[in-house]
Amino acid sequence: MLPLIQREVVDRQGWIDEKEFLNMIALAQAAPGLIAVNSAIFIGWRVGGWRGVCGAVLGAVLPSFFIILAVAMVFADWKELPAVEAAFKGIRPAVVALIAAPLYKLSKSAKIGWSTLLIPVAAAMLIWLLHVNPVWVIFATIVITLIVVDIVERRRR
Q1: More confident residue, 16 or 101
Q2: Which domain does 107 fall in, by range?
Q3: Which of 33, 48, 143, 145 sits between 20 and 30 A of 123, alpha carbons compared?
Q4: Alpha-carbon distance 126 to 51, whole Å?
């Protein structure tokens, strides 16, 4: 949903700029809950206060809810059919592409390079290969980031 949200609120409506959108995504990921709902809360508040929040959240949640409900009702009867199984296997690469394309675009906007890519790759390797608890990885990343930002800020002065 993020590319759709970006296209609508940044490109078409101009409610927020691209930098604010990237900051909003960072906040939406850090907060508990779904990114699309957290984003809807932020944008709804920015555009229309409490009414905007209610409208944006309902707009983000209800269509998906009803579509998933309808698919689940139908899928329960058809999931064993070979054609349905084949269709879902064929959909997998498209889902990967739908996730990868906006990720690539957002990484360019956020000016993510090889040096900044090192942090999430190192975190993933710690969790996957060394079985480090993700909570410790997140905590260490926060502490290291605060130290680095403090060092950079002191050098600017």
Answers
A1: 16
A2: 2-111
A3: 33
A4: 43
